[in-house]
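Researcher: Good morning. I'm working through a list of sequences from a screen, and I'd like to move beyond sequence-only analysis. For each chain I'm collecting a predicted structure so we can compare shapes side by side. This is the next one on the list. No need for commentary yet; just the structure.
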Amino acid sequence: MRARKHVTRADNLRRALAQEAARIMAEHGIRDFLVAKRKAAERLGVTDGTALLPKNSEIESALAEYQRLFGGASHLLSLHAQRRAALSAMRYLSEFEPRLVGAVLAGTATEHTEVQLHLFTERAETVTLKLLETGIPHEVTERRVKLTAERVRAYPGVRFQMDDQPIEATVFPQDGIRQAPVSPVDGRPMRRANAFEVEALLDPL
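Model: Good morning. Structure tokens for this chain:
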């Protein structure tokens, strides 16, 4: 019985940490799961190292629950605006076979979340040239992407705005469309959605 109580206490603490990390991500715009975990552990006085820290997938579930309970209509409106901006950007960049990824696709985005796109072309500079030609202000970026459990690689990208929403697009080679990177949430291949799928997400609203 004593062992069962210990497990239950540990489970309750993990859940509390996941809920606090989710609250921190929602209210403070933190995107990094590890940073949110550490801040949650600090706030709850947990000093046992990483043994009791929740998984990223547990935090994402807690974040979805937090938004359902406290976000209400404002969360749905914000998410709709982000997805609408994503679709506008995808149509604008259609020659690069754009895919929406991340929290805006999953529905767990906060008002601070950038729309994350994956683009595919053998010459990354063609994306920046298109932005230059149409006069869209942008910033050249680089993002480290986890391709497998052991392999991480840096890819070029651009950051710009579309419909008053921040967009960050990571540029992969053409064959990068065949295999999605590893999701930071659950370690599985990242879910990607094309413009038709994003449009379908907007239909009910």
